[in-house]
Amino acid sequence: MIKQLSEHQPSTINHQPSNVPEQIKVAVLRGGVGRERQVSLESGRCVAEALERAGVEVVPSDIGPQEMQVLDRRDIDIFFLALHGEFGEDGQLQQVFEDRGLAYTGSGPAASRLAFDKMASKRLFAGAGVEVPAAVEYSGVLEPEELEDRLRGLGERLVVKPIRQGSSVGVHLIDSRREAITAAQRVLAEFGDCMIESLIPGREITVGVLGRQALPIIEIRSQAAFYDYHAKYVDNRTEYLFDTIEDPAVRTRVQRAALACFEALGCRDFARVDFILTEDGTPYVLEVNTIPGFTSHSLLPKAAARIGLSMSDLCVGIVRTALAQRRK
């Protein structure tokens, strides 16, 4: 049975008070090599501080493909992954942990790879019965005329985005097919394979998932025309609101859709699922973030706080859950 959490339900996840009975040492991995490096550094700092407040011994480590010496330390009990984007969420680092038999937080390599690939995950979400915006993949093979023909069914308002990036990096909102093709060619040159997607009008909402339970829904209201990198991490005017969806049936539908996406990918521990909610109450899933942010602007900690989990509770609970799964 799928469980959902409202603001008035206590968490039944493995989130006990933020003290740890046994002395454990947690390495918090942050930084990485992707375009979200600065956000990752801040996420890692916030996670490390939260664990330290709970009495956990923490080893902060800025790592990358050539800087992974911390993985050789025998005194580390578990690794808390706070890396975003490339080499954080794309499954590469998770595969290293699997190959070495090390305990770590978050989803495994297969789920991470799938979630990081927006086209592959889109197909899985649709197969799970969740609505997705129609899209066309572009890898440079199609001629512009053929690509324009394929875009006819997507409408005039379009979104061009890299297939394998996060934090809205490289995303463009476009008002015509011709402009979308030009933007797609630029995105392809900078980021590799990209996609052109129908722009679904509606409200931007997100659902955190902890231990296969859905947290309260957050509606995001940006002061900018688009909830871009600046709005996510810099602009203090961006609003994050609870209780904006009045219809309980719609709330239930959104949370069930989030859990269906989480399960379809094979995620574990935690994630965040982003949607556009249309006027008729239909949630269109945009993506699943397997390592969402842990900064002061980040949405998973906000949703956890809504049900009474402090940042320390959240981070210690994630560590507990990951350790319990590893012991099984």
The largest sheet is:
7 strands, mixed
What is the share of helical residues?
25-40%
CATH class of the largest domain: Alpha Beta
The secondary structure category is alpha+beta
Poorly predicted regions:
1-17
- Distinct helical segment count: 10
In whole angstroms, how far apart are the ends? 22 Å
- Shape summary: globular
- Average of per-residue pLDDT values: 89
SSE string = EEHEEHHHEHEEHEEEEHEHEEHH
Radius of gyration: 20 Å
Short description:
The protein contains ten helices and 14 strands.
Describe the structure.
Mean pLDDT is 89; it is low at 1-17. Helices cover 35% and strands 21% of the residues. The chain has three domains: 3-105 and 309-327, Rossmann fold, CATH 3.40.50.20; 114-131 and 200-306, D-amino Acid Aminotransferase, Chain A, domain 1 (2-Layer Sandwich), CATH 3.30.470; 135-198, Dna Ligase, domain 1 (2-Layer Sandwich). It is of the alpha+beta class and 328 residues long. Strands 1, 9, 10, 11, 12, 13 and 14 form a seven-stranded mixed beta sheet that branches. The protein has a four-stranded antiparallel beta sheet with strand order 5-8-6-7, with helices on one face. Strands 3-2-4 form a three-stranded parallel beta sheet.
